[in-house]
Amino acid sequence: MRYKKNTPPSAPKETRLKVAEPVELMTFLLAKMGGMSRNSIKGLLAHRQVMVNDKVSTQFNLPLQPNDLVVVNSSRGNVELLHPKLKIIFEDQYLIVVEKKEGLLTVSTGISDETTAFSILKNYVKKSSPQNRIYVVHRLDRETSGVILFAKTKEIQLALQENWHRVVTRRVYVALVEGNVEKEKDTIITWLTEHEKSLKIHSSSTDNGGQQAITHYRKIKSNDKFSLLEIELETGRKNQIRVHMQGIGHPIVGDKKYGSTVSPIARLGLHARILAFIHPMSLENVSFETPVPRNFLNVFH
């Protein structure tokens, strides 16, 4: 994260270091940071105060190459985000990728001042500099956990949203559903429409003028009561996975809205596990992955 020259004096001071030869990050910082101890440097890393080529790094053994740029914030400006419902997976000067827990809205519905992923991140980036902003790129339902991407500028937000289907190269979910799904893998194609009053999504196997929705799934494991599915989206419609699982007779556990009658894990059994996309500035294909929630697996023990 770069700071402008007119940043207030209270903002973090930066030490900018150019790498001359291949070396690990810890070794480099020990040599360059004026006699700091190994534990002090680990503290800098843990508190997200070190950036390598504009990306926050917490990895002490990160391999550095000649001409890499290491930036160290000497005060606790770039504070660690500590929240039970939100964890930062990746951050650079353009993007923040987080893992959201179930029960947290992505963004406010406008009805109350409820804490959201957006409000948590807005406060987090402002701790580094009051001028910092955060922008919503896409959303997960309140009860769905997993990977979400946020932008740090309006321009990056628009670039991602306007080219979403070209930019996103992979979206993979895991779903815990009712019953033993018969097919090992399948593709579901339907057309979705939203009911004006109930806001419930309805699915049609024939083109009724709604939005076409395509879902690929494969069975990971199952028993008589439940199946764990890996689900890859070809389209990203509202409630698409939930409607499609109901449509094949295996609603997602805990999803009362779409036909579930059981709640063995006391939450909706849906988790956004992998998000891969083309970085809007580097144009690299980057991928972020989170583990399958443990309680999704516990029902098979």
What does this structure look like?
The protein is an alpha+beta fold. The protein folds into three domains: 14-72, Structural Genomics Hypothetical 15.5 Kd Protein In mrcA-pckA Intergenic Region, Chain A; 86-162, Pseudouridine synthase; 171-272, Pseudouridine synthase (2-Layer Sandwich), CATH 3.30.2350.10. 18% of the residues lie in helices and 33% in strands. It has helices at residues 25-32, 38-46, 117-128, 154-162, 164-167, 240-247, 294-298; strands at residues 14-18, 23-24, 50-52, 55-56, 63-64, 69-73, 86-91, 95-100, 135-136, 145-151, 168-178, 185-194, 201-204, 211-222, 226-233, 270-278, 285-289. Strands 7, 8, 9, 10, 11, 12, 13, 14, 15, 16 and 17 form an eleven-stranded mixed β-sheet that branches. A hairpin with a 2-residue loop joins strand 3 (50-52) and strand 4 (55-56). The chain starts with 13 loop residues before the first strand and ends with a helix. The model is unreliable at 1-12 (pLDDT under 50).
